[in-house]
Amino acid sequence: xxxxxxxxxxxxxxxxxxxxxxxxxxxxxxxxxxxxxxxxxxxxxxxxxxxxxxxxxxxxxxxxxxxxxxxxxxxxxxxxxxxxxxxxxxxxxxxxxxxxxxxxxxxxxxxxxxxxxxxxxxxxxxxxxxxxxxxxxxxxxxxxxxxxxxxxxxxxxxxxxxxxxxxxxxxxxxxxxxxxxxxxxxxxxxxxxxxxxxxxxxxxxxxxxxxxxxxxxxxxxxxxxxxxxxxxxxxxxxxxxxxxxxxxxxxxxxxxxxxxxxxxxxxxxxxxxxxxxxxxxxxxxxxxxxxxxxxxxxxxxxxxxxxxxxxxxxxxxxxxxxxxxxxxxxxxxxxxxxxxxxxxxxxxxxxxxxxxxxxxxxxxxxxxxxxxxxxxxxxxxxxxxxxxxxxxxxxxxxxxxxxxxxxxxxxxxxxxxxxxxxxxxxxxxxxxxxxxxxxxxxxxxxxxxxxxxxxxxxxxxxxxxxxxxxxxxxxxxxxxxxxxxx
Length: 486
Fold this sequence. Notes:
Elements lengths: L3 E5 L3 H13 L3 E5 L2 H11 L3 E5 L9 H11 L5 E5 L4 H9 L4 E4 L4 H26 L12 H13 L6 E4 L6 H10 L8 E5 L8 H6 E2 L8 E2 L1 H4 L4 E5 L6 H13 L1 E3 L6 E3 L3 E6 L3 H6 L5 H7 L2 E4 L10 H16 L8 H9 L5 H15 L17 H4 L19 H19 L4 H8 L3 H11 L3 H10 L4 H5 L10
Parallel strand pairs: 1-2, 1-3, 3-4, 4-5, 6-13, 6-14, 7-10, 10-13
Antiparallel strand pairs: 8-9, 11-12
Helix pairs in contact: 13-15, 14-17, 17-18, 18-19
């Protein structure tokens, strides 16, 4: 990523010398000869680094005072102080107020370039660490072997390297933010910040202050908004349908002009930001109801991306469920537990209104709350699942551990077991007779006769086939190394 360096010095010759040295190394430079020019350049240009002279002739503010303002408004920008009349006291004072380093004039070019490179690298590492802390526990890769998820990942790979805006649609918990993070991570802006504005949780009265920032007044430093914090990176407008209608017009202009004004200010601020938006609502309906601006929709939906609901890719559930059990066990310091086949079958029949997030929460709850004989490693059976999960499963999946099978005659108990066992296996293989027969070790024709004998109807099998839940391959597949689900 191209770095812009702001050079603040009252001597034109020094500025010219520094510009030449830095531009030869591929940096973009901008000069300022006094404190007013320096403040304007800092607030408009968003430099990656500032080289600041301590003694500024004919300026309202000296270098130390400018340093305090710079660090208050944007503490992430490193400042290198320079001076031809420096003392130990001034050097210490500048470092105490947040300067990265202090260099005496006349300086050596090699020494300056080393300090600049180190300062930029230090700032990059600080941003990365802050981002890692922010997204700790956040999934970073969409998982699943279904055709739907393979299609989504393919779309992300195609659009990520471009600078196009993307509108991600899908239900709550379907993985929209994970998709946005993947777009950022695979883009040319991956080294820049990833900033999230949750439009659904922010009070309308504070929306514009949070987005655009607040101009400094009465000696107070300006407060940067999220648009400025996302400079050279990506801004996610999460649940964009909840953005106040009045603000929508201002964001349209900001997207078109790439400039905006802070609240209470009159100075244009220029930013370089890729905007990604997400929504769980139908924006066409919102437009028809005059709750969402049509011009904003077309600026955001340059590339539309739809996240499938979990119920539409039930074959991914075994891999996701096992991953969540494993990751939750590690984070909680608990023994890992397995899911029985009948439990997986029940999970695959549930509708999952909360999508992947609901599955993750359930797996964490089962890991902690499911009954255990003491060592915590017992298999999680279907009878341990909540009733709402079990109610759509075949009869064997609803058989509790307390069922009085032992009171039945041998033939009836055997028929009951075979019926329920074959129902679960049919569900496991999406109603596919050939694959079920192969797994249970029967000839296909023999399985047909057994199902007919046990009263498993064609309607039952047709319903399973219509669901298309081919979970066998997913059940056998293990998560790819380094992959984390949505």
